[in-house]
C-alpha cells in the first residue's frame, strides 16, 4: 500500500509537471498611450504575431493607457521583472543614465522620416540600444510615433509667442532646454496627467505628435495647434534582459520574427495615423491649425538649433556630428 501511494504520488507529480510545462509563457507588455495610436496598434500586432508564430506557447498581455504602470514607474517595473516588455519614449533613457538617447529629443535634428531611419536602422541606432544592456534591459526595435506639433491657447507662430507660457514636457533635460530657448517655462509631467492639466490651466500648452494629441482629446482643451514638426517622438521596444535570455532559443527566435513584423507595421502606419489624426482635429473645429511659413520655420530653427550646441557635452559632440553626417544637416547654413 505504501509503495502504491508513492507510485501514485509520482504519477500525479508527473501529470502536474506536464500540465505546468504546457502553460504558455506570459509577456506583459505595458504602455502609456491609447490602443488606437501607432504604438498601441503596434503592440496589438506584436501580440497577434507572437501568439501565432509560437502556436500559443507565448501569451502576450497588452496593457495600454497606463493601466498597469504609470510612465514614471514603467522602467523600474521592467528592471525588477514585474513586467517583461515596454515601449517607452526615447526621452525616458536619459534619466535612467543613458544620456546618449537624448539625441532624439534635439529639436530639428531630423527633417523627415528618411533622415530619421538612416540613424535608427544604422550603426548609431544599434549602438544606442546596446548601451541599455548595462541596465538589465535589451533593446529590440525602434517604433515611430511621429514628428511633434505645438499646442496652446494662443497662436504660436514665432519663437517670441512662447514667452512666459507653461509648456508640458516629458522628463528630459534637452526638452527643458528647448522650451527655455523659446522663452517658455517647461513643466515636467506624466503623460496620463496632461489632459487634466491643460483643462484646468495648470499648463498652457504642450508638444505631441497629432495621434497623441487627438486620442487623448487634448485638442478639445487647446485652441491652437501649430504644425512645427520641430521634434521627433519615438519609442524603443525593450525587454527585461534576464527574462529574454532565459527563453528557449526557438521561442526567442519566433518572437524576434514577430517583432520585426510588428516594427515594419508600426512604422508604416505612423505617418498615416498622424495625418488622419490631424485631419480629425481640423474637422472637430475645436483647435485652429496653424501652418508655419518658410520664414517662420527658419526663425524657429535659428533659435532651437542652438540647443544642439548646449547639449553637446551631455549627449556627445561626436554622436551629434555622426548624425549630421548621416542626414547632411549643417547648422551653420541657417
Explain this structure.
This protein has 334 residues and is an alpha/beta fold. It has one domain: 3-Layer(aba) Sandwich (D-Maltodextrin-Binding Protein, domain 2), CATH 3.40.190.170. Helix content is 47%, strand content 17%. It contains 15 helices and eleven strands. It has helices at residues 2-21, 38-53, 74-80, 93-96, 113-120, 123-130, 173-181, 194-200, 210-215, 241-245, 249-284, 294-304, 306-310, 312-315, 317-327; strands at residues 25-30, 58-63, 85-86, 137-147, 149-152, 166-169, 185-188, 205-208, 224-227, 232-240, 288-291. The protein has a six-stranded mixed beta sheet with strand order 7-6-8-5-9-11. It has a five-stranded mixed beta sheet with strand order 2-1-3-10-4, with helices on both faces. Helix 2 packs antiparallel against helix 11 (249-284).
Short description:
By secondary structure, this protein is α/β, with parallel strands linked by helices.
> What spatial order of strands do you see in the largest sheet?
7-6-8-5-9-11
CATH hierarchy, class: Alpha Beta
Write down the overall mean pLDDT: 92
**What amount of the residues lies in strands?**
15-25%
**Total number of β-strand segments?**
11
- General shape: globular
From the 3D coordinates, which CATH architecture would you assign? Answer: 3-Layer(aba) Sandwich
- Low-confidence runs (pLDDT<50, min 5 residues)? 1-20
Structural class: alpha/beta
Q: How far is it from the N-terminal to the C-terminal residue, by CA?
A: 91 Å
Reported for the largest beta sheet, the result is: 6 strands, mixed
Helical residue percent?
Answer: 40-55%
Radius of gyration: 23 Å
CATH superfamily: Bacterial extracellular solute-binding protein, family 7
Q: Could you give the order of the helices and strands?
A: HEHEHEHHHEEEHEHEHEEHHEHHHH
Domain count: 1
**Helix tally?**
15
CATH topology title: D-Maltodextrin-Binding Protein, domain 2
Amino acid at each position: 500500500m505504501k509503495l502504491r501511494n508513492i507510485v501514485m504520488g509520482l504519477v500525479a507529480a508527473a501529470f502536474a509537471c506536464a500540465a505546468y510545462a504546457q502553460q504558455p509563457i506570459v509577456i506583459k507588455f505595458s504602455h502609456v498611450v491609447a490602443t488606437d495610436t501607432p504604438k498601441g496598434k503596434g503592440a496589438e500586432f506584436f501580440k497577434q504575431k507572437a501568439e501565432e508564430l509560437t502556436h500559443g506557447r507565448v501569451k502576450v498581455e497588452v496593457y495600454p493607457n497606463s493601466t498597469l504602470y504609470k510612465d514614471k514607474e514603467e522602467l523600474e517595473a521592467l528592471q525588477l521583472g514585474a513586467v517583461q516588455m515596454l515601449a517607452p519614449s526615447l526621452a525616458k533613457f536619459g534619466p535612467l543614465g543613458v544620456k546618449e538617447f537624448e539625441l532624439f529629443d534635439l529639436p530639428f535634428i531630423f527633417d523627415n522620416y528618411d533622415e530619421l531611419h538612416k540613424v535608427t536602422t544604422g550603426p548609431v541606432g544599434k549602438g544606442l540600444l546596446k548601451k541599455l544592456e548595462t541596465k538589465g534591459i535589451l533593446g529590440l526595435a525602434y517604433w515611430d510615433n511621429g514628428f511633434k506639433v505645438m499646442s496652446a491657447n494662443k497662436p504660436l507662430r514665432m519663437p517670441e509667442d512662447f514667452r512666459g507660457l507653461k509648456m508640458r514636457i516629458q522628463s528630459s533635460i534637452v526638452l527643458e532646454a528647448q522650451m527655455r530657448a523659446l522663452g517658455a517655462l517647461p513643466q515636467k509631467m506624466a503623460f496620463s496627467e496632461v489632459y487634466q492639466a491643460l483643462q484646468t490651466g495648470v499648463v498652457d500648452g504642450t508638444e505631441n505628435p497629432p495621434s497623441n494629441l487627438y486620442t487623448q482629446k487634448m485638442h478639445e482643451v487647446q485652441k491652437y495647434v501649430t504644425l512645427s514638426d520641430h521634434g521627433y517622438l519615438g519609442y524603443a521596444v525593450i525587454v527585461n534582459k534576464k527574462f529574454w535570455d532565459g527563453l528557449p532559443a526557438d521561442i526567442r527566435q519566433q518572437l524576434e520574427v514577430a517583432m520585426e513584423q510588428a516594427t515594419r507595421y508600426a512604422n508604416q502606419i505612423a505617418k498615416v495615423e498622424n495625418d488622419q489624426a490631424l485631419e480629425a482635429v481640423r474637422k472637430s473645429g475645436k483647435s485652429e491649425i496653424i501652418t508655419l511659413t518658410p520664414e517662420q520655420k527658419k526663425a524657429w530653427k535659428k533659435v532651437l538649433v542652438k540647443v544642439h550646441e548646449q547639449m553637446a557635452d551631455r549627449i556627445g559632440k561626436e554622436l551629434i556630428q555622426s548624425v549630421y553626417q548621416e542626414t547632411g544637416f549643417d547648422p551653420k547654413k541657417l
